[in-house]
Amino acid sequence: MSDIQMENNNKEPKKTFPTFIFNRVEFSGSLGDLGALLPIAIAMIVLNGLNATNVMVTAGLFYIMAGLYFKVPVPVQPMKVIGAYAIAVGLTPTQIISASLWMGLCVLFLGTTGLIHIIAKYTPKSTVRGVQLGVGVVLMIKGLDFMIKPDPNLVFQSVGPVNTGIILGIVGMAVTLILLENRKIPAAVLVVFGGILLGLFIGKPLKLEEL
């Protein structure tokens, strides 16, 4: 037997992977950016009046389409700049839809023409970091505003002399900082679902005509 034949026989068989795999790891990966999507989506539904069904169904469809195309869980990234600005300024659903469409067209044009690579090449990181910092500051200011102002939807507005919103904000911030580096428990998801549970327990029930 020649050396080439022996070498070929000693080679390990090439591993083949199924087209689709669904297990605990894949499921966890698909929820990787849920901590960014849920808070922004819920805030824009509650504060800006977006239709909850349209938002969630559209996001779900994009999850499915991305998974079918890339064969891996690809989290759908919300447009955080538009979301943060819409929440902070109080944009209407029409304004949000218009901004999203224009942004989508711009990204499509830049991507198909290759101009996105030129822009990325000559855009300093300081500019990107500045935009990220600005978005974060805008959201922080809006969050502090919600914490300080009394919430008429809560059963009790304060615990002693301290506003309930301030207490909830401090607890949420502490949970976020504790779980900031935790890969198993996303801090934002825990805070969001914790807020939903608190709303069920200490929130005022809505009347049928208010739904």
Task: Reconstruct the topology from this structure.
Layout: H1 3-10, H2 24-30, H3 34-48, H4 52-70, H5 80-89, H6 93-113, H7 115-122, H8 125-148, E1 158-159, E2 162-163, H9 164-178, H10 187-202
Helix pairs in contact: 3-5, 3-10, 5-8, 8-9, 9-10
The count of β-strands is 2
Q: Helical amount among residues, as a percent range?
A: 55-70%
Mean pLDDT: 77
Alpha-carbon distance between the two ends: 81 Å
Largest sheet: 2 strands, antiparallel
Q: What is the CA-atom radius of gyration, in angstroms?
A: 23 Å
| Count of domains | 3
What is the count of helical runs? Answer: 10
Low-confidence stretches: none
Strand/helix succession:
HHHHHHHHEEHH
Choose one word for the global shape. globular
State the strand order across the main sheet. Answer: 1-2
Structural class call reads: mainly alpha
Roughly what fraction of the amino acids lie in strands?
under 5%
List keywords for this structure.
3 domains, 2% strand, 10 helices, mainly alpha, 211 residues, two-stranded antiparallel sheet, 2 strands
